[in-house]
């Protein structure tokens, strides 16, 4: 098994384990939890089949759904999967989760600010801010774990970085590893 696949499975296992424990501790069915989550946000966040796939480790949520789940459970994202391996941070409600567009805008703004901050620490700052450089570093991050992992195209990164798209969770975590920050540090 490739290390990239193993890393994705670790994220899936951590999320599935957390949800299973929550269901058991609160004596809830999957449908009851789905109903609570959707009612909490006054919108459809998950369906019962989607929750079942998360628990069965057959899927991974997009970044927005992941942070909604963290907000519902009132946990910091590092309690599910720590990127920097520092102690889990204290949960703080994220104000940008009202709509997907607010989340994506917040993510884009914080990503831009973080990249600029890291660029000022890096001697070739123009390189650091380029999508090509970031795509190369993200590819290297994945290939440390799986030498056969395909290269991340800078155009793919451009779409997520500048065009208001929700990131796949494993993609977000790889980007955070390159930037050396926790995922939740990229949103309000």
Tell me which oligomeric state these chains represent. single chain
Helix and strand run: HHHHHHHHH
Helix content: 55-70%
Shape: globular
Class inferred from helices and paired strands: mainly alpha
Mean pLDDT: 77
Low-confidence stretches: none
Q: Gyration radius, to the nearest Å?
A: 17 Å
Distance between the termini: 36 Å
Main sheet makeup = none
The amount of beta strand, in percent, is under 5%
Number of helices: 9
Number of strand elements: 0
Brief overview, please?
This protein has 9 helices and no strands. It is mainly α and 188 residues long. It has helices at 3-25, 30-41, 48-55, 63-73, 100-121, 125-129, 131-145, 154-162, 169-179.
